Structures are given as C-alpha cells and as structure tokens.
Amino acid sequence: MLDSSIKEQLNTVRDYIRYGASSFNRAGLYFGHGTDNAWDEATALVLHSLHLSPYSKLEVLDARLTDAEKDAVADIFEQRIGQRVPTPYLIGESWFAGLKFHVDDRVLIPRSPIAELIESEFAPWLYIQPQRILDLCTGSGCIGIACALAFPDAQVLLSDISRDALAVAEKNIAEHEVGERVTTVESDLFAAVSECFDFIVANPPYVDADDLSMMPEEYRHEPKLALASGRDGLDFTRRLLREAAEYLSEKGCLCVEVGNSREHLEEEFPGVPFNWLDFERGGQGVFILYRQDLIACADCLG
Hints:
The chain is built from 13 helices and 9 strands. It has helices at 4-9, 13-27, 38-49, 67-82, 87-91, 114-119, 142-150, 163-175, 209-213, 235-243, 262-268, 291-296, 298-301, and strands at residues 93-96, 99-102, 132-136, 155-160, 182-186, 197-202, 248-257, 275-276, 286-290. It is of the alpha/beta class. The relative contact order is 0.11. It has 2 domains: 4-91, no CATH class; 96-301, Rossmann fold.
C-alpha cells in the first residue's frame, strides 16, 4: 500500500507509470521476461490494473485514478518489487512471435529466439513443408501453436512431462482455435510418442548448475523442472540427440535451443555438425540438425 502522502501526489495514469518506473529502477529489478526496461513494465502493470488496453488512446494518460484504482496499482507494484514476481505472471499473459499467450507459474515465460525462426518459417533450413511437427518441452505451447499458425497444413503435437504445463498449453490451443490440428501428450521425451515427424523443435531445460545458482530472483518463480538440466545443462539434450533420428522422417529436421550450454555441447560432441543460428533480435544457442546428421553421428552421440 502506498504511503498516504505519496498517494495524494499521484493522480493520473501518467503519474503512476512514472512512479512505477522510478520505483522499479530504484529496487534494481531484473527485466528479461518480455520487457527490457522499467518504463515498459510499469506501463503494462498500470494498464492491466486499470483494465485498459495497451492500445488505448494517449488521452488516457491524463485520466485520474479513483482511490480503489490507486490501491490496485500499488498492490501489483508491491508484488513486482517485494516478491520479484515477473510481470507476465502478474498480468497472466505474454507475447511470442506476435501472438498473445496465457501464462502462469506452471510454465516458463515465453522468450525463446525461436520466435524469429517461426516468423520466417524456418527459412532456409527446412527442406520440405512439414506435415507433422513435434514441439518437445512445450510448456505454454507457444512454440508449437505458433508453428501451427505458420504452417496451416501441419498437424502439431505438443509434448511435456508436466501435466500442469499441458493444462496451460491446452488453454492456449483453445484460445487460438487450433484444436483441430494441435494436440497434447504427457511424455518424458519420446516415451509416449510413436509416430515420425518432419520437424521436431525443442526449447528444453538447459540451464547448468552454475548459471542456475546465479539467476536473478525473478527466475525463482518459474518451474525449476523447465530450467535445470544437470551439472552442465545437457541431461535432456543428450537423450534427445541419441533418440531423435528414430522419430524424424527421411528429410526430417531437428531444432533445439541450449542457450549458454552451447559451449558444453560443442566440447562433448566435437564431431557433430551443429548448425548454429544467428538472430537479428538477439539470442543464441539454437542449432539445427538433420536426420542424416544424427544417423551419421550415432557412434559419437553414444
């Protein structure tokens, strides 16, 4: 709750956005879950608290808040500052590949650079138009659903080991009205998967133990299951590389994000011809491999 003297000085939407941005900077918050600065975070939280669209006319900035509205904004600011809850969890939504997705603390907040690849339909990496796509470790379903919209003829399977995460993904399937082509399966990697796919995409857990221990407090609100993957961050990816060829069609393609664990991966598998991708909007640690690459490297993959 705001101190009464401060509350008396803050009256308009503009006042609260400015006050929030100043407070966030003063508190040293971490930005990286959809925004990269205090002003955008404050704007998102104020407009959400007031049930206003981010596309509202500029005149709304000078609208005066009621006492109840001031309390609502103060409460959400306190959650952001005092508890370090990331903004997408507080407002219940996040944007990915130009699409809005429901999120809560059962899933990671969408932020993968794979969004940029989806927007370009993975050109020039895909040899064929994929008819069947598998999104492993789907979480909110953002990658698989965005792929379904980018490839309107494709059937897409969203897989995750977490039943809670799949509940969120199913909500997003319904909201994007892709239920006829997008389905879910609860599976540990390929355990409950039987068919082959033209394209497998994965943003699996890949944070190594050192990075996990040094992450900002905001990350503590995300499911650890979706972040941590052993000492070097590669426990899941090793299994994926060893098994993926069996689930890819003849000209199938595998796209995986490993982030900062790229160095560990290259050290362990120097003979694997990883195609590391560059991104105009930032991001790293995403590779492409083809079924023939995985088969050719089967011995070194173990």
